[in-house]
Amino acid sequence: MNRAVALLSGGLDSATAAAIVRSEGSEVFPLAVAYGQRHAVELEAARNVAKALLLPELRIVQIDLRAIGGSALTAPIEVPKGRSAAAIASDVLGAAVPITYVPARNTIFLSVALSYAETLGAFDLVIGANALDYSGYPDCRSEYLESFERMAQLATRAGLEGRGRYRVRAPLIAMTKAEIIRRAMELGVPLELTQSCYDPAPDGAACGACDACVLRRKGFEEAGVLDPTRYQTGVAVSPRHSQNR
Amino acid sequence: MNRAVALLSGGLDSATAAAIVRSEGSEVFPLAVAYGQRHAVELEAARNVAKALLLPELRIVQIDLRAIGGSALTAPIEVPKGRSAAAIASDVLGAAVPITYVPARNTIFLSVALSYAETLGAFDLVIGANALDYSGYPDCRSEYLESFERMAQLATRAGLEGRGRYRVRAPLIAMTKAEIIRRAMELGVPLELTQSCYDPAPDGAACGACDACVLRRKGFEEAGVLDPTRYQTGVAVSPRHSQNR
Q1: Hey, which residues 21-80 in chain A have their CB within 8 Å of chain B?
Q2: Does B164 touch chain A (CB under 8 A)?
Q3: Do B107 and A62 touch (CB under 8 A)?
Q4: Could you give the ipTM of this predicted complex?
Q5: Using the beta-carbon criterion (under 8 Å), do A103 and B157 form an inter-chain contact?
Q6: Does the distance separating the beta carbons of B141 and A154 come in below 8 Å?
Q7: Whose CB has fewer CB within 10 Å in chain B, the N or C terminal residue?
């Protein structure tokens, strides 16, 4: 059976990507990279998602990127709140990179996944990267992912010995958030267990206002699906994101 | 002034690579990746080397690769001892990958260096990779390093915005260990502070018998330089490695 290592962040996208690859017949080994992000909530979500999807036990690699900083997700910089989906999208169109960009994050994540894959004899690396709804992130583009594949082939013992061909599988790359949500529901992804928020409360409730929350809420609305996310009470943004478009 | 991030392992090669790049006019920022290796001795050596070379403070990123394993350096597997330089070399010629190979290690290291470089506005990543004396490691080949460069360009905000061109600088790639030692001495690298051993005693004394020690000792002998390394007493291998050639 084909083996794949799937990066799980605890979010909706990575869970759906893992579920898609599994539905196509691969044995999926979940991996989380704990990179000193503020919220352990994400790891707990990743663990719950892995369990709900009946995957093997989540492997967790700790890496403390706070020693490097450079992002609102790893350094004491404010996470932007209350931006409309349109404002986030204009970041994409203008090729501005959001402040939540963690320098070379996907490269670090995929490198750790590559290391784990080599110990398993796996050649597929699964990532929830998405180029449509939410980018401006250089490391969510197909061009980048293909370049990582070529590098991986040269980087490893398994590649050197010609035992297989590495692939970075990013099944969500061209999907809208609404399409991702619909596909996730078809595949039985436990959406209520996923955690997308950049700045959740200590109890895990989502802020509802960061870019990730805004896009997630808009996705549920467009998919015509009830959003099962537990939001903090008194969130200052409108619950109807259609007004912000 | 051109900025470079130099990966320091505490060993002779990485210290010399950093010194060479600095001698060519770059401002060098040292970085160590602590990957759950058995010996904190290496980190201490890296810190001492950075100080002796008057570099900025050593940045240390912790990453626990023991969660992955797969190598004698990260899992409870015996480090081979007492192999001759010839036996190590035959691994290279036969393209066998040593048990001390850590899956995708240089890719993880370079990825972390890339992340740090991006926060500094640096485009040069310095690594002590060497393809001659000591390989069989797929990720010590020029072909691999060039592929990483291309990937880095696509992976980052700085690359996307065209602010510079990433280079992986591996000035030792084609040098023999003896050449590296001679160059290190010319540049005032504190060889006595470096630590190459895969299995040092708790006090930092080198075992003298692992592959790294064997190659280091042979290098000093061939360079005609007194080896300042502190070895453990009662080491079972011959101190005259010329007999093993």
Answers
A1: 59-65, 67-70
A2: no
A3: no
A4: 0.85
A5: yes
A6: yes
A7: N
Residues of A in contact with B62 (CB under 8 A): 62-64, 67
Could you tell me if A92 lies within 8 Å of chain B, comparing CB atoms? Answer: no
Record: contact B144-A161, CB cut-off 8 A: no
Question: Of A215, A209, A200, whose CA–CA distance to A245 is shortest?
Answer: A215
Sorting pLDDT into bands at 50, 70 and 90, what band is A153? very high
Contact list in A for residue B105 (CB cut-off 8 A) is 115
- Domain residue ranges of chain B, discontinuous segments joined by +: 3-244
Of A79-93, B6-20, B136-150, B155-169, least confident by mean pLDDT is A79-93
Chain B residue whose CA is closest to A107: B111
Provide the pLDDT for residue A244. Answer: 38
CB-based contact B139:A155 (threshold 8 Å) = yes
Q: Extract the tokens encoding B128.
A: 């002590």
Please provide residue B179's backbone torsions phi and psi, each rounded to the nearest 5 degrees.
Answer: -65, -40
Residue type for A16, please? T
B103 CA to chain A: closest CA distance, Å? 5
Query: Token pair 């393209």 is at which residue?
Result: B95
Q: Which residues in chain A are closer than 8 Å to B114, comparing Cβ atoms?
A: 103-104, 107
- Would the CA dihedral through A226, A229, A231, A237 be positive or negative? negative
Ramachandran bin of A89, using left for φ above 0, alpha for ψ from -120 to 50, beta for the remaining angles: alpha
Is A148 in the B-facing interface, judged by CB distances under 8 Å?
A: yes
Query: Rounded to whole angstroms, how far apart are CA atoms A68 and B231?
Result: 35
* Range B120-138 burial, b when 16+ CB lie within 10 A, else e: bebbbbbbbbbbbbbbbbb
Q: What is the pLDDT of residues B165-190, one digit of tens each?
A: 999 999 999 999 999 999 999 999 99
User: How does pLDDT run across A175-208, given as a tens digit for each residue?
Assistant: 999 999 999 999 999 999 998 888 888 888 999 9
Give the pLDDT mean for A159-168: 93
| Cβ atoms B38, B77 nearer than 8 A | no
CA distance linking residue B32 with residue B47, whole number of Å: 9
